[in-house]
Recover the amino acids of this structure.
């Protein structure tokens, strides 16, 4: 099977984001990598890692480098300012492996690399604000109207945020479907919008506030099958007039307010049922 | 029924990475809201839509795979996005109707 690159990253990019020194393999900076594995246990590295990855470790011994070589790692990054000895560097040179050194700790290094990956979904959604307070997570995103190329990705991101918090899968499905329909409405009908996700242990709330043409008759817009989508949008499979009815079906509370020529605000709530 | 078995029996083209998945039922639609509302997780989704948004829809509803009928060409950006989110896209040169009759033929009945 052909080598699969889930990450869109090369060593050069990692060197930049970690402000790392390349002490071995300076000519190999354009090497693409497949994944990142962070561990200080040699047996973990041998058991769980994936070939073509880069190893992040604070353990600076020859055993680590040998294990990394056997596990087909392309590079090793020593964190927290650890310096490899001559023996390690010679072994790496002989095996064409790249060695980088950074002052970052494991957590910082992981986060910086993850953020640098241009395949990461977080690069396609525009996060404006992120707040965590007393069991409540608030995220504010921006949506561009008419941007069909990235539409649907924000809902996908919301789904993974909710999965990470650990909500019930059926609740997550209802929220993501509603977010998707709301997002698509903005992409089809508005100039731009902000989406606020507000999640705590009692409820999940999504507010989409757009700048656009507004809805003159909300009751009509709520009817199944009613749509003002253009012919081009319908060809893509949008505009079946099911967006708002679909949000209504999936949410526990729905409030729509709109001003023609100004914009529309859609507020939806989903109750978290405690077991 | 298992996805790989369906791929082999109906000679479907694999346009993305493929893994074994359990297929429960079939859903046919070219309207995305319809898929979001009515498709069930584990469904095989038969459609002629090939743009990137199908990937988000399939991912949000946890569909087993998308099957593009009528031998329609799928843009590379759709395939790339699908691979990133582990959405499986398959292709068939049959029409949706012909493909459905074959699916029923191998025992994937409603």
């Amino acid at each position: 099977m052909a080598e699969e690159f889930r990450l869109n990253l090369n060593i050069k990019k990692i060197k930049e984001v970690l402000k790392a020194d390349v002490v071995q393999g300076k000519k190999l900076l354009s090497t693409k990598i497949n994944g990142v594995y962070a561990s200080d246990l040699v047996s973990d590295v041998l058991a769980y890692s994936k070939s073509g990855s880069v190893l992040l470790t604070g353990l600076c011994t020859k055993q680590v480098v040998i294990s990394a070589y056997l596990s087909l790692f392309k590079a090793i990054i020593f964190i927290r300012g650890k310096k490899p000895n001559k023996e390690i560097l010679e072994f790496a040179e002989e095996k064409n492996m790249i060695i980088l050194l950074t002052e970052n700790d494991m957590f910082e290094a992981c986060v910086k690399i993850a953020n640098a990956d241009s395949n990461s979904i977080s690069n396609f959604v525009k996060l404006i604000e992120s707040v965590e307070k007393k069991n409540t997570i608030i995220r504010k995103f921006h949506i561009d109207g008419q941007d069909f190329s990235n539409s649907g990705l924000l809902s996908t991101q919301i789904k993974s945020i909710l999965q990470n918090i650990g909500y019930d899968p059926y609740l997550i499905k209802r929220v993501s479907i509603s977010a998707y329909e709301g997002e698509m409405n903005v992409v089809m009908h508005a100039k731009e919008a902000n989406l606020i996700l507000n999640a705590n242990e009692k409820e999940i709330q999504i507010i989409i506030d757009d700048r656009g043409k507004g809805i003159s008759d909300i009751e009509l817009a709520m009817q199944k099958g009613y749509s003002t989508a253009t012919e081009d949008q319908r060809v893509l499979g949008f505009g079946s007039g099911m967006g708002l009815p679909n949000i209504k079906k999936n949410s526990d509370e729905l409030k729509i307010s709109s001003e023609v020529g100004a914009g529309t605000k859609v507020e939806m709530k989903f109750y978290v049922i405690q077991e | 029924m298992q996805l790989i078995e369906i791929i082999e029996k109906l000679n479907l083209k694999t346009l993305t990475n493929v893994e074994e998945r359990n297929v429960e039922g079939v859903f046919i639609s070219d309207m995305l809201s319809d898929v979001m509302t009515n498709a069930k997780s584990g469904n095989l989704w038969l459609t002629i839509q090939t743009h990137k948004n199908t990937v988000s829809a399939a991912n949000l509803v946890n569909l087993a795979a998308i099957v593009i009928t009528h031998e329609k060409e799928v843009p590379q950006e759709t395939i790339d996005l699908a691979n990133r989110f582990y959405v499986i896209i398959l292709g068939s040169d049959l029409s949706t109707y012909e493909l459905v009759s074959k699916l029923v033929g191998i025992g994937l009945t409603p």
Q: What stands out?
A: The mean pLDDT of chain A is 88. The first strand of chain A starts at residue 9 and ends at 10. The radius of gyration of chain A is 24 Å. The CA atoms of residues 229 and 235 of chain A lie 10 Å apart.
